[in-house]
Design a protein that fits this description.
The complex is a heterodimer. Helix content of chain A is about 40%, strand content about 30%. Chain A contains nine helices and twelve strands. In chain A, a hairpin with a 2-residue loop joins β11 and β12. The radius of gyration of chain A is 18 Å and the shape is globular. The model of chain A has no long low-confidence stretch (mean pLDDT about 90). Chain B is about 25% helix and about 40% strand. The mean pLDDT of chain B is about 95. In chain B, the strands form two sheets. In chain B, strands 1, 4, 5, 7, 8, 10, 12, 14, 16, 18 and 20 form an eleven-stranded mixed β-sheet that branches. Chain B has a ten-stranded mixed β-sheet with strand order 3-2-6-9-11-13-15-17-19-21. The relative contact order of chain B is 0.10. The N and C termini of chain B lie far apart (about 45 Å). Chain B is an alpha/beta fold. The chains are: A alpha/beta, B alpha/beta. Chains A and B meet through α2, β7 and α3 of A and α10 and α11 of B.
Chain lengths: ~260, ~425
């Protein structure tokens, strides 16, 4: 059974339809890249998978581990092992990174029938995960993302992922706005978390990230549909030709419609 | 008799017997006359526009007895306050209870009634000299009833290490009762003290606490003051804190209002040259609670500074008022005043009225103010959910986080823990 199976997914925000029939199958152990121009629906797909209620699913279904994902609350999805790294991580003044992660991890552990982690065990576990992301431990006691630089926020996202150990990670433009050093660290963290049990969907606008996180499958999204899928070479092709070719095809299609 | 004064009559019929000290009896009589002619304030008065005290005026309160509150006081150690022994003075319906209290080295503290008998000159030099009976009818009412209360004197240069906790236990009777807690604090030059007024209720009956606190901060003294209101949701609570700050003194007060049906706090300070005044606060109101905080900082002389941060959390059909006055007198150049009021509104029916009131006669000053009213950030709620935290837990976490920065400023650890627990309970 695939870990994730998306069938004919349609979603809209307000009156605007953004996803117009997505089909996608992701197996455990695979890394899928989803590329596409601005407005193609990449981030919408990521948000719909994580349960953001701004979007309304109008058609289709999503099975996660054989279960109907769309019926689950966002927190339930997280506890079932879905993690989304936000394109724009949210600042939460007044809540320390450490407190937040402990609450999150224990919610997940409880759901899985595990004991809550005590403070000392948690701290040593978390510190070990921080090293992976080359993060300053001082960030643990700071409020979540508050006053973090853009790079620190993105690293913090992958750090959260490393702590929560999801089965399906969705990285929403985690590379955007990163300098090359930060990109290497983020990619290093992601690669360290690749495993046969875990799948990842890497949403990106740029091919650059895929030099560091080498995908098994690349999909091109345009106008709310996957218009092409291939191996990692498809990303390189795109780098050469750009998205214009796909957009032109779509524009033609729209004219005909 | 006007509508404003008709409800004053039962109070005037229950005035205390003369003390035999002519200055005190004169003070009480003047206050009683003031209250008799003025009566309870009306919403037609600017100062009381958003706070209708008719629900207080129309209840036939009888004066509360100390004994009414004794039973609750017995449970203080277990329920309220871990810091027993660390300078705790307990007052039952405004009357000092020595058997429940313990003193702090370096401070003269205890019963106001005893101090009036023992050192009338020291008391009369300040009692009723700062809290103005003409400015606020509730101050007049409290003053007309001065018998006992809290008396605290910190000697020149004294720096007691332990904070002083003044615990006021009110109510406790089946019938509606009123008490008028009175506190006088004088802090000598170069002295430094931390004190907290904590108001709790005995039982859940209807009660009315009408408190007045006068704090005199001498030259170069430092005072760290806290006021914590944890009375039951049936209690009416009206309080004025009037502070006088001498040259180069530093006064800071944090006010936490988490209880009471109808609450009005006035926190006022007059600041002499080079004085610094901080007035911070947190109010948490749900159900049909109404909490009104009026502050007034009067920069009378130059080179002063004031800082204000008041935060409010409103839910249900609660309402709140924040009114922050800052006066900068003509001579008071080089004043730096900052005022901020932030409100978190959790329901559609809650109401907040916030109003800065800056009156500036000097020309070389910096005064800023800002007010915000907002809801919980939907993005933040989703972010927490997406990490596995349940929606309701996420809301509670973010609400506590909003209050966090005011509670974090509380220096005595036992008090901070008390407030954290009280806030968590209040938000349940």
């Amino acid at each position: 059974m695939p870990l994730l199976e998306i069938r004919n997914l349609h979603a809209k925000i307000g009156d605007r339809e953004i996803l117009r029939g997505i089909d996608l199958t992701v197996n455990a152990g695979e890394v899928h890249a989803i590329m596409g121009p601005n407005g193609s629906g990449k981030s919408t797909l990521a948000q719909v998978l994580s349960g953001r209620d701004l979007y309304e699913v109008t058609e289709g279904e999503v099975l996660y581990d054989g279960k109907n994902l769309l019926e689950m609350e966002p927190e339930e999805r997280a506890r079932e092992g879905i993690f989304m790294a936000f394109q724009y991580p949210v600042e939460i003044p007044g809540v320390s990174n450490l407190y937040f992660l402990k609450a999150a991890l224990n919610a997940v552990r409880k759901h899985r029938g595990l004991e809550e982690m005590d403070a000392m065990d948690f701290l040593s576990f978390v510190k070990q995960r921080m090293q992976l992301m080359e993060m300053d431990q001082e960030l643990l006691n700071r409020a979540v993302n508050a006053g973090f630089s853009g790079g620190e926020k993105k690293r913090n996202e992958i750090f959260h992922m490393a702590v929560l150990e999801p089965r399906l990670a969705v990285l929403d433009e985690t590379d955007s706005g990163l300098d090359i050093d930060a990109l290497r660290i983020v990619a290093g963290g992601v690669n360290a978390l690749r495993s046969p049990e875990r799948a990842m969907i890497v949403v990106t606008h740029y091919q650059r990230l895929l030099n560091y996180i080498v995908p098994d499958v690349v999909h091109v999204l345009s106008e709310g549909r996957i218009v092409k899928s291939g191996d990692k070479n498809l990303a390189l092709e795109l780098e050469e030709s750009g998205y214009a070719a796909f957009e032109e095809e779509e524009a033609e299609a729209l004219k005909r419609a | 008799m006007t509508a404003a004064t008709e409800h004053a009559a039962p109070y005037l019929a229950a005035l205390p017997v003369p003390s035999g000290q002519s200055w005190l009896d004169g003070l009480r009589e003047a206050a009683a006359r003031q209250f008799a002619s003025r009566g309870f304030p009306q919403t037609s008065e600017e100062e009381w526009r958003f706070t209708n005290v008719a629900p207080i005026a129309r209840v036939p309160f009888r004066p509360a007895r100390a004994e009414d509150a004794r039973q609750e006081a017995g449970a203080l150690d277990a329920t309220l306050f871990p810091a027993a022994g660390a300078g705790r003075l307990v007052f039952l319906n405004g009357r000092f209870a020595p058997e429940l209290s313990s003193l702090v080295p370096g401070i003269t503290a205890g019963s106001l009634a005893e101090a009036i008998g023992r050192e009338p000159d020291a008391v009369s030099a300040h009692l009723g000299r700062h809290a103005d009976i003409a400015a606020n009818p509730f101050v007049a009412l409290n003053t007309a009833f001065i018998e006992d209360g809290a008396w605290l004197r910190v000697a020149k240069n004294a720096v007691p290490e332990q904070p002083v906790y003044l615990v006021f236990v009110g109510g406790g009777s089946d019938a509606p009762t009123v008490c008028h807690p009175r506190t006088l604090v004088t802090v000598g030059p170069n002295a430094q003290v931390t004190l907290a007024e904590i108001y709790i209720g005995a039982g859940d009956g209807v009660a009315f606490t009408n408190a007045v606190t006068e704090i005199v901060v001498a030259e170069n003294a430092v005072v760290d003051h806290y006021k914590v209101l944890l009375e039951p949701l049936e209690t009416f609570h009206v309080a004025t804190m009037q502070v006088w700050q001498g040259r180069s003194s530093n006064f800071s007060s944090h006010s936490f209002s988490m209880g009471g049906a109808l609450v009005r706090n006035d926190a006022n300070s007059t600041v002499e040259e080079g004085g610094e005044c901080t007035l911070n606060g947190l109010y948490v109101a749900g159900g049909t609670q109404h909490i009104d905080n009026h502050t007034a900082i009067d920069h009378a002389k130059p080179h002063g500074a004031s800082h204000e941060l008041y935060k409010g959390i409103l839910d249900g059909k609660a309402s709140a008022v924040f009114n922050g006055k800052v006066y900068v007198r003509q001579d008071a150049q080089k004043i730096d005043a900052k005022q901020t009021n932030k409100n978190l509104v959790l329901s559609e029916d809650a109401v907040i009225n916030t109003k800065p009131e800056l009156q500036i006669w000097a020309d070389d000053v910096r005064c800023t103010h800002g007010a915000t009213i907002g809801q919980l950030d939907a993005e933040a709620i989703f972010y927490l959910q997406s990490r596995g935290i349940a929606r309701e837990d996420a809301r509670a976490l973010l609400t506590r986080a909003f209050a966090r920065d005011v509670i974090d400023r509380v220096k005595p650890e036992p008090l901070r823990h008390l407030l954290e627990r009280a806030l968590a309970r209040r938000l349940e």
